[in-house]
User: Which sequence fits this backbone?
């Protein structure tokens, strides 16, 4: 197996979110060939998992599993198996020859050799895994719990929660599906899929942030990577095994687009607080302009209940509640009344669930937009720290830490 | 020591290379033919092998990479058409190997034995081919088992007929007879069209559950659990009685394909996963768990019969049998649907290699 280079990973992901500030200037002076090689370099080992602060890839699957491992030994087998397969899938290379004593080990959908560095696997644990089944209660991350039900939600229990969340992202959909097929094949007796939703990041139209299915640019105002230690990775008060992890929220938000399309553009823009065409705040000209609330105390320009204003009022107090969003659009076909079942897989990472996502969500309660969107599923998960080296595996420190307490 | 033919071809290759200048050329493919089987196999370093082979014969055939002393097969390519080339990926530790070429209508030819040297550990798992005679013996044991069960099935369908006047008793009698049939599981293909008559689903019939051509256990289940008139159910059960007696007569003279026994091992559980655990076979009785339990007993029977044939080439057999046993316990408990899904789908994965191990392979 090729050596996995963490620096290569950071260098190769220069982009909107992750790389630009994280990668050093020197590392971006490499020649074009080397840049290509680095961009496709495997990225698996490191203090943090991939798929969090690095550049968002265009295709994603979010699959929640219930763990059915019979005991702690089987749970460890599950975590080790997930690690081994994720390592193979992200590192890439020729498919292992299993010979004639078994069916083929790989479905072949990516050809005879799995492309390297095209996939990010991100593993999160749900609160239910820390119940009494595996003696993990004492090591539960401080804020982890089943996803709250907010007043504007319409949650379907079959599409909520789960013991393990597998987030798979890649530039191409076939890579995502190949990885999911492999991970489920190797873990059938240990965990079973509970719910799944796939999404895409559409291309910029015509530039800047991608648009959601409401037609508005989404994810413009993400915090810079330099703030990851303050906003994304775990802070004080968490169990020591959790260092380097992050809380992940997934919300499957149905968008009632037929209704939305029957609303005037001006009203839509006042609900969001941005111009639809440019993405600029109603107080500005470009999408990168910061909204100006100090000169607009009564909401004459950006209404006080506009989505962006409630989500981030740009006060010193609200600064620490910023979240790192990585949304994906979804499209599932049609509803029983013939309406299109389409929406947003809202997902965000944060250091503290309550200080960040929950605070933002509480500020948004009852916003005018809630008539046009309907959260139907999702969950709270804890994205575990990265796999540090070839001997490490997902959650190893969690297992070690709880073993000493048994 | 290197076998003579390899040395000769190595020498022959020199002028060709010289004519093309110094540029590296891909090695000549290993020859698959009656006259020069195994020629050009030049890489003698143990480890991962990426071997290109070509049928240089005028006939189609099969190529096997074997250990000549144990007869274990490490790679098997079939069919290989005349003039075609294919790649074989296999890992081999240090040892002695040879290619065996089985060209159509010709006796097998084994090429020169080549010695691989090096420290690379770990070979691709090999299979020592089972003989046709072994498979026939196993198939006969299986036929014997089914033959022994069929009179009981006929009896149980008779009891169902006699219980029809009491709806509660009829439902119990239906379940008992149906589970008995499901326990035979392994023999679906052997029953041919009779299986469709005895245990068919309305899928594929234009009229669905009202289609007059839908007969058998599930048709009767639908009637019993949907309040059909007893006179109608009686007609359906009498048809089933005729069909199971026909099965009994037919099976006494049937000769099962020996190929099937190896495939059955995982197809019973594949069917359980696809049709039972999804509720596709439920027409009111909600008895899928009993059906899956009966299917697992069928799998158990098959595994018992082929145990000695697969044990040498299937290191996971012990764990698979343990999981089979645990799955039966889970079904009886009864455990959650997810637990059962996990059991049966994991069993499918673990049983799948048996078909490869028991695949009849020509050796002569």
Assistant:
């Amino acid at each position: 197996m090729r050596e996995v280079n963490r620096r290569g990973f950071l260098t190769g992901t220069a982009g909107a979110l992750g790389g630009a500030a994280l990668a050093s200037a020197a590392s971006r002076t490499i020649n074009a060939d080397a840049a290509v090689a680095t961009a496709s370099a495997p990225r698996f080992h490191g203090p943090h998992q991939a798929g969090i602060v690095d550049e968002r890839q265009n295709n994603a699957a979010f699959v929640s599993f219930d763990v059915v491992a019979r005991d702690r030994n089987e749970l460890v087998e599950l975590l080790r198996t997930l690690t081994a397969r994720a390592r193979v899938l992200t590192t890439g290379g020729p498919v292992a020859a299993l010979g004639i004593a078994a069916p083929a080990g790989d479905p072949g959908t990516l050809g005879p050799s799995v492309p390297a560095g095209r996939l990010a696997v991100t593993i999160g644990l749900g609160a239910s895994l820390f119940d009494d089944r595996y003696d993990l209660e004492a090591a539960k991350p401080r804020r982890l719990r089943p996803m709250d039900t907010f007043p504007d939600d319409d949650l379907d229990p079959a599409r909520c929660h789960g013991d393990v969340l597998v987030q798979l992202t890649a530039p191409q959909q076939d890579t995502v599906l190949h990885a999911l097929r492999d991970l489920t094949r190797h873990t059938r007796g240990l965990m079973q899929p509970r719910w799944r939703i796939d999404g895409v990041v559409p291309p910029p139209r015509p530039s800047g942030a991608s648009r959601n299915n409401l037609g508005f640019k989404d994810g413009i105002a993400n915090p810079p990577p330099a703030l990851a230690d303050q906003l994304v990775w775990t802070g004080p008060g968490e169990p020591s095994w959790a260092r380097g992890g992050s809380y992940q929220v997934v919300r499957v938000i149905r968008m009632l687009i037929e209704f939305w399309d029957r609303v005037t553009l001006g009203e839509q823009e006042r609900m969001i607080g941005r111009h639809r065409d440019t993405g600029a705040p109603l107080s500005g000209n470009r999408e990168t302009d910061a909204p100006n609330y100090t000169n607009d105390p009564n909401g004459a320009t950006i209404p006080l209940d506009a989505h962006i204003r409630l989500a981030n009022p740009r006060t010193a107090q609200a600064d620490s509640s910023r979240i790192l969003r990585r949304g994906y659009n979804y499209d599932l076909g049609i509803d029983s009344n013939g309406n299109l079942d389409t929406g947003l897989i809202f997902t965000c990472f944060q250091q503290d669930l309550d200080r960040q996502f929950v605070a933002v969500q509480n500020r948004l309660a009852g916003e005018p937009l809630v008539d046009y969107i309907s959260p139907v599923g999702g969950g709270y998960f804890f994205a575990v720290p990265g796999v540090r080296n070839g001997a490490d595996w997902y959650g190893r420190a969690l297992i070690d830490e709880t073993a000493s307490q048994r | 020591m290197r076998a003579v033919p390899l040395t000769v071809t190595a020498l022959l290759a020199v002028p060709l290379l010289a004519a093309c200048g110094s540029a590296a050329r891909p090695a000549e493919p290993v020859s698959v033919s009656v006259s020069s089987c195994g020629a050009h196999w030049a890489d003698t370093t143990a480890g991962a092998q990426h071997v290109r082979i070509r049928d240089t014969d005028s006939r189609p055939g099969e190529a096997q990479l074997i250990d000549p002393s144990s007869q274990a097969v490490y790679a098997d390519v079939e069919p290989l058409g005349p003039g075609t080339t294919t790649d074989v990926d296999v890992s081999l530790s240090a040892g002695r190997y040879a290619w065996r070429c089985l060209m159509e209508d010709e006796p097998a030819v084994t090429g020169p034995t080549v010695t691989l040297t090096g420290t690379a550990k770990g070979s691709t798992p090999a299979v020592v081919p089972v003989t046709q005679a072994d498979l026939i013996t196993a198939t006969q044991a299986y036929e014997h088992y089914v033959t022994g069960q069929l009179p009981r099935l006929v009896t149980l369908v008779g009891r169902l007929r006699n219980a029809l006047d009491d709806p509660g008793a009829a439902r119990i009698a239906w379940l008992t007879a149906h589970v008995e049939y499901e326990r035979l599981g392994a023999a679906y293909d052997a029953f041919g069209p009779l299986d469709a008559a005895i245990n068919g689903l309305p899928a594929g019939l234009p009229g669905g559950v009202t289609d007059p051509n839908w007969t058998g256990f599930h048709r009767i289940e639908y009637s019993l659990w949907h309040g059909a008139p007893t006179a109608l159910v009686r007609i359906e059960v009498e048809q089933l009685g005729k069909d199971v007696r026909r099965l009994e007569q037919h099976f006494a003279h049937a000769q099962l394909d020996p190929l099937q026994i190896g495939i059955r091992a995982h197809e019973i559980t594949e069917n359980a996963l696809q049709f039972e655990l999804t509720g596709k076979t439920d027409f009111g009785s909600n008895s899928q768990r009993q059906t899956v339990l009966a299917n697992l007993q069928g799998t158990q029977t098959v595994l018992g019969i082929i145990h000695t044939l697969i044990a040498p080439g299937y290191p996971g057999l012990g764990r698979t049998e343990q999981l089979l046993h645990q799955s039966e316990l889970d079904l009886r408990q009864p455990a959650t649907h997810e637990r059962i899904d996990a059991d049966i789908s994991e069993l499918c994965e673990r049983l799948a290699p048996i078909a490869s191990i028991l695949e009849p392979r020509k050796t002569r």
Observations:
- The longest helix of chain A spans residues 72-91.
